[in-house]
Design a protein that fits this description.
The chain is of the alpha/beta class. The protein has 2 domains: 280 residues, 3-Layer(aba) Sandwich (Aldehyde Dehydrogenase, Chain A, domain 1), CATH 3.40.605; 188 residues, Aldehyde Dehydrogenase, Chain A, domain 2 (3-Layer(aba) Sandwich). 39% of the residues lie in helices and 21% in strands. The chain contains 15 helices and 22 strands. The strands form 6 sheets. It has a 7-stranded mixed beta sheet, with helices on both faces. The chain has a 6-stranded mixed beta sheet with strand order 9-8-7-10-11-21, with helices on both faces. A 3-stranded antiparallel beta sheet has the order 5-6-22, with no helix packed on it. Strand 12, helix 10 and strand 13 form a beta-alpha-beta unit. The radius of gyration is 23 Å and the shape is globular. The protein starts with 5 loop residues before the first helix and ends with a strand. The protein binds NADP nicotinamide-adenine-dinucleotide phosphate. NADP nicotinamide-adenine-dinucleotide phosphate binds next to helix 8 and helix 9.
Amino acid sequence: MSSRYDNLLANVPTDLWIGGKWRKSSDGGRFDVLDPATETKIASVASATVEDAKAAVDAASDAFEGWAGRKPRERAEVLRKSFDLIMRDAERLAKLITIENGKALSDSRGEVAYAAEFFRWYAEEAVRAIGAVSRAPASGARIVVQHKPAGIAVLVTPWNFPAAMATRKIGPALAAGCPVVLKPASDTPLTMLALMPILEEAGVPAGVVNVIPSRSSGKVVSTMLHDPRVRVVSFTGSTEVGRKLLHEAADTVVKPAMELGGNAPFIVFEDADIDAAIDGAMIAKMRNMGEACTSANRFYVHERVHDEFAKKLTAKMAALKVGNGLDDGVLVGPLVNADAKKKVIELVDDAVDKGAKILTGGKAPNGPGHFYPPTVLDAVPEGAAMLREEIFGPVAAIQSFKSEGEVIKRANDTEYGLVAYLYTKDMNRGMRVSEQLDFGMIGLNRGLVSDPAAPFGGMKQSGIGREGAHEGLMEFLETQYISVTW
Ligand code: NAP
């Protein structure tokens, strides 16, 4: 282990958190967590087995009645305390995220603040699972509608936001009264393990949140989804794995919430404020080094402003400092692992072979570290794979367009529908075009849409359901209607 990280890793737990206790896995199995900047081992983490997964569901089941029975205000106070304690420990958590994920410390700090907000927001929502009473038009009976915690929730999260993708699920689940079993991504299990003592200190009772990293994700998650006590599966990750989990969820009719892949268009109209569009583009493309489902994947720039936009974006991208995310001034860390880097290299090579022009970057340095330089490609041809697939790296693919109708059609020509961005000074056009884009979220003159108070989620194959806002709470609640005469 690198001595540079010793202090940061000294007290980070590496076992399974089940029923409020640290446990080894039932077969003693462990797996290594690597630092993407140096490719060295930073920790060895217990790998949950099917037996451990059953034990975690048992622990959640034991905790369910007590947690669901707490008054909403009590649950709210535990969530609010969790927010305060995460903010108290924000710097330590941010460094941990950078060590295991690679992202620049500034990105990690932003992520911790965003992650903590889900506890504050849902502390406020916990007291607002409001029902309704009305009269049946024909019979005159009362229709009483109320919400109950849905049951045990299995949460499966990706490596790109090791904190926020999990708290975006844990916050509403706990607010609703549901205990959870979380399976974090194998590349980045440490952040969630480090969160557990914080939640315990905040007053989350034993068994309400269980965390089981595992190298046998498929088997472990499948086992839990086939346990009739599990009633919700909330997954964030690739569309490919999301499809598999939807099939699994069908067997026991588990309620699915799916936050899947994206392929965001970023449209710059001829009347846009170009400097504002560049600022937005840098956020939409480079937050998390492009390793975000919301990352701008396809830049469509009107032919009249294309040259100016391409030149300014290239200058900004070329100026970003690449290096170990913990180092001062670094804004672009390494990609998460060797496969991620290989994929970016292949996508760029494919586009260049087909005729795209490299304006900056485009060539990966040798290791160690999964680094890839900020890259701008211009005139990316329609057949390039990067226009169909998520790039998931610091690569901006520019194309030009001539008319509004044409760009709407091209932007919508994808199986994904998570987020689209557009820049124009004409708000009539902005709203008109927004309404015609088949995406769950629109950034209109903004390069960032994520907000705990807003419903985050996608259309088409980008997902089912919403996270954040009141909608996010409803994913963990069942609606019950009582027909009554009094
Ligand atoms: P991934 O490969 O789909 O993995 C996500 C999680 O699923 C990980 O915990 C993984 O565990 C687990 N998993 C893998 N195979 C599984 C299986 N057969 N059964 C059950 N669980 C399984 O995704 P990723 O590469 O970590 O994350 C990148 C993807 O997430 C991108 O497509 C991105 O767009 C998407 N994403 C979407 C959102 C959103 O809100 N829409 C947000 C962030 C990311 P292991 O790590 O052990 O394989």
